[in-house]
Amino acid sequence: MKESQKPTLVIIVLVIALIACISLFFASKIPSENSPVGFILPPGDATAGQRTFAQLNCIQCHSVAGVTFQDSETVTSDLMVPLGGALHKVKTYGQLATAIIHPSESILKADDRYVDTSGNSLMPDYTAVMTVQQMTNIITFLQEHYDIVKPAYDPQGMGYPYY
Ligand code: HEC
Hints:
Blueprint: H1 6-29, H2 46-55, E1 62-64, E2 81-83, E3 85-87, H3 93-101, H4 132-143, E4 146-148
Helix pairs in contact: 2-4, 3-4
Bound molecules: heme C (HEC).
């Protein structure tokens, strides 16, 4: 190759690299098929949610921070999973909806007290018995009982809230 052709070659390589970077950037912006982007629940009613929470017997395995349920047949055992309270992480309604309608996908599955031998959540499947309205009401009720706490130590300076 002639010495004079070298700069042209460098420019061509740079342009190709630039096009590749731009394409990658746009490709990463397209949500995947299973993305939660665009998932927006209708507003719920927290008071009705609290009632449904007791009616559907969620109180058998869950306590909710700051809430006392009347006539609760609560089994106080190792299995009790407290909901609500102070968290260092946002509990989005996407996460709550997933925990309720697809518990085996839930974030707590890493804890082996809460899963059976095949790794599925011990939480029952409510998809055939719960209406969407009941679910949105329960989520609104639960969200009211989560407090986001900003920890004092934030080494990576990531800022809060985390998602
Ligand atoms: C038989 C016990 C049981 C019943 C009844 C039950 N759950 Fe659960 N639930 C669990 C267990 C065990 C977990 C933890 C494992 C997991 O995340 O799936 C859990 C997890 C959850 C979580 C996620 C908690 C977190 O911090 O990530 C939510 C929210 C929840 N349940 C809501 C409900 C609601 C609403 C009902 C009633 C409609 C209900 N549960 C009924 C056992 C139960």
